UniProtKB/TrEMBL annotation:
Transmembrane segments: none annotated. This is Double-GTPase 2 domain-containing protein. InterPro entries: DO-GTPase2 (IPR045528), P-loop_NTPase (IPR027417). It comes from the Bacteria.
Length: 385
């Protein structure tokens, strides 16, 4: 079974569809025509050669209409293209969720950038976009505003008003040891708007997305945890609490709602790994730093440092309890077999108005949740020092 990374419908391999290549030059083939299924799904009119299904889908198939051979595989449900690498490497879908304004989009923007550069180098890994839409969308919606114009990202539009394409990347790493085994992971990141996760009537797409998730990352905004106020910079205290009166419940609400949905898949404690991260920890007061494992930089070991992991986990747990948000920790421990706590900052510095700080983007521990998940997926070693 593979999960379509666009519509998140589960597709048995025997039902993978193909799209005719159409004609090119002197080679005759089917004419492009309006694809209603894809147009409805993407919200943009799409003209392409037709999609067809075959009895035993392999890597290629012959179009029944024009007899031309094609290797363009498509999801039978939404007609999006399924990349060959994706079909070969059943993807791990990482769901990223958090309340409105928690920092999800900024986190995605910076995480991808880091995986392509610094962290990719450390792990001897490559991150390659799986389709053109991913390349386009990362560039226009994430990279250009943040890294090009140094502007903060605008809030994510609800899936109700704008089509939402997930970003799909193939993450490949060559492991250590004499065998140099190569392992791949398809990373499907779906940038949700905070309000979409909150409403009682969550959309079909979101339900399928969460249902298909192999791991979930929760982002919690410390500015919105009332008990955290004393630990924040003065300016952050003023900026916090702008969203609603009942903010703790807002941060918590998303955790509970998403957990309830995941719960429908099985009874007992959930087996799906959950990474729970405080975002924006650059907003914590410098006085926090002295005893803090959180403020120690992670050594680039190319492996998960288990001692460091435990220290950070403990510290974030202590912070949550100190901030009267211990309920979140208790709730997680009741619901999940496997959850871990993190603290990170995508920007690394408090933004100045609508711009990133003049010192630039200096992410801090953004990769930690992913390293932990890779370790959980057996794609990264854990070491003790
Ligand atoms: N100090 C600090 N602020 C951040 C950081 N990341 C995001 N922010 C702030 O949080 C705001 C919201 O960030 P987004 O990434 O748009 O949040 P979101 O979760 O995608 O929000 P929605 O799309 O509306 O659900 C930004 O405009 C920044 O002001 C960070 O690492 N540090
Ligand atoms: Mg957003
Ligand atoms: Zn054809
Ligand atoms: Zn699909």
């Amino acid at each position: 079974m593979i999960t379509c990374p666009y519509c998140f419908v589960k597709v048995p391999p025997a039902r993978i569809a193909f799209r005719c290549l159409g004609g090119s030059g002197r080679i005759k083939g089917c004419e492009p025509r309006k694809d209603d299924v894809l147009s409805t799904f993407t919200g943009v009119a799409q003209e392409l050669p037709p999609v067809f299904s075959v009895r035993r889908p392999g890597r290629r198939a012959v179009c029944p209409a024009c007899r031309r051979e094609t290797a363009w595989r498509a999801c039978p449900s939404c007609h999006s293209r399924l990349a060959a690498e994706y079909c070969a490497n059943p993807g791990k879908i990482v769901a990223l969720v958090g309340a409105k304004h928690a920092g999800k989009s900024t986190y995605i923007a910076v995480l991808i950038h880091e995986l392509m550069n610094r962290v990719g180098e450390e792990l001897d890994a490559s991150l390659v976009p799986c389709d053109d839409r991913t390349i386009e969308r990362y560039k226009t919606d994430f990279n250009r505003p943040l890294y090009g114009d140094h502007r903060l990202l605008s809030f994510t539009q609800s899936a109700k008003t704008a089509a939402r394409d997930p970003l799909v990347y193939l993450f490949t790493r060559t492991g250590g040891g004499w065998r140099r085994r190569t392992a791949s992971l398809t990373l499907v990141l779906f940038d949700t708007a905070g309000e979409d996760l909150r409403e009682r009537e969550m959309s079909e797409l979101h339900l399928r997305y969460l249902n298909a998730a192999d791991a979930v990352i929760f982002l919690l905004d410390p500015l919105e945890l009332p008990g955290a106020q004393a630990a924040l910079h003065g300016s952050a205290r003023e900026r916090g609490g702008i969203l609603a009166d009942d903010l703790m419940s807002d941060q918590m609400d998303v955790v509970v709602r998403v957990t309830e949905l995941l719960r429908k898949r099985n009874s007992g404690r959930l087996a799906i790994p959950a990474a729970v991260a405080l975002s924006k920890i650059d907003e914590l007061r410098p006085s926090m730093e002295r005893q803090s494992a959180l403020h120690r930089t992670r050594d680039p070991l190319g492996a998960l440092d288990l001692d460091d992991r435990e220290a950070v986990d403990e510290q974030v747990r202590a912070l949550l309890h100190q901030w009267q948000a211990g309920m979140i920790d208790r709730y997680l421990s009741q619901q999940y077999n496997d959850y871990a706590l993190f603290g990170l900052s995508a920007l690394g510095e408090v933004p100045e108005g609508q711009k990133v700080a003049r010192s630039g983007i200096r992410p801090y521990r953004v990769e930690d949740p992913l390293l932990w998940l890779l370790y959980r997926f057996k794609m990264l070693d854990g070491i003790r020092r």
